[in-house]
Amino acid sequence: MAGDASKALSNDVLWGGGRSPFSISYGKMMMWFFLVSDALTFSGLLTAYGFVRHSTTEVWPIGEEVFRALPGLTGSYPLIYVALMTAILIFSSVTMVLAVEAGHRMDKKGVIKWLFLTVLGGAFFVGSQAWEWSHFIHGGGGYITTPQGGKYWVHNDTHDTHDPANAPGFHLVQADAEHYLIPAEGAHHLDHAASLKLWNERANYVNGANMTENEYGPPQYANFFFFITGFHGFHVFSGVVINIIVLIMVIQGVFHRRGHYEMVEKAGLYWHFVDLVWVFVFTFFYLL
Amino acid sequence: MERDDIIEYSLDAHHSEEAGRKIRRKIWMVTLFLAVVTTIEVTLGAYWKEWFDASAWNSIKWTYVVLTLVKATYIVMTFMHLGDERRNIRAIILLPYALFILYLVFIAIFESNYVHQLWLRFL
What we know:
The structure holds two protein chains of two kinds. In chain A, about 40% of the residues are buried. Chain A folds into two domains: about 180 residues, Up-down Bundle (Four Helix Bundle (Hemerythrin (Met), subunit A)), CATH 1.20.120.80; about 60 residues, no CATH class. By secondary structure, chain A is mainly α. Chain A contains nine helices and four strands, in the order H-H-H-H-H-E-E-E-H-E-H-H-H. Chain B folds into two domains: about 70 residues; about 35 residues. Helix content of chain B is about 75%, strand content about 0%. Chain B contains three helices and no strands. The longest helix of chain B has about 35 residues. Classes of the chains: A mainly alpha, B mainly alpha. Chains A and B meet through helix 2, helix 4 and helix 9 of A and helix 1, helix 2 and helix 3 of B.
């Protein structure tokens, strides 16, 4: 990128007053300072997640076993949907940087085109996250625990969780103690009578996820999922709103009259940061 | 009142059609790179159990961390243009953050090991 920042200047000139020693405008520098503080917040959240996961003695769920559904399809597609969301967010980051590049050439049409695609990608991501939350909260049928400490997955044909025992195809499958969501090695599907007996003697029935219990793992797992992806999702949502406002201003020609498109660049910094955070959430929450 | 003593750094960021072509090419190359790295990560996550035995998990974990940091570097340096800024602003943004986070991660790993041992002993 051309600009004042690439000029070779001696320290005497840089720090001698009358100019920014960083060769950067006030707004851009403040955006960077905000992003650093926001990055510290997200780092704190992810480190807290790591701390709890590392110190717990309970079995912690694995991302590829929890997140393996696609909208409208049955079957197992480990991490495919999250990978798609990641790809969309990275792609919208690319369209954003192309909008910034178009702005540097004062190409108003180019800025509008790329910024519009960025808004579209961001909206798609927020929608995907809403679907994932909904899927996470409803869960896949849940499990019961017996007074003896046994654990059984609840199955039925209609995925009924309100009254599963009376739904067609109701039966239980013994769960693997070492894995969430995976049936025990060689576990067979219990027949209806045996399932009904265990169901009536159950100590607890856990299905889906809420703040106090979830079928995937320890309570903290769902709490961290809600908080970290929720906080990130809120950032994406505000990013989309900011991008829409900037897009409207671009269409109105505000920045063209001003002579530069730095506002697109500042909104772009925020948007890239949202993408950057997701790269880390994706690794530490879903992959590890 | 209009001030004339302020340098408009934002005006200085303009570039020509020729330079724009070069920048766009760089952007698409970085995009391709990020897409390839993400594909590797997801494929590894989905199939590692079929390719390696359970003892490989530790090295796969570290592979993920390294790949993530590589991705983050490209996003910050190219997409956020930090690589094009002056060295002093780069240091002001990255160094305090890195110092604090390295300390935080160190202390979190250290303490969580200790708490884990406590749970094992007293739970």
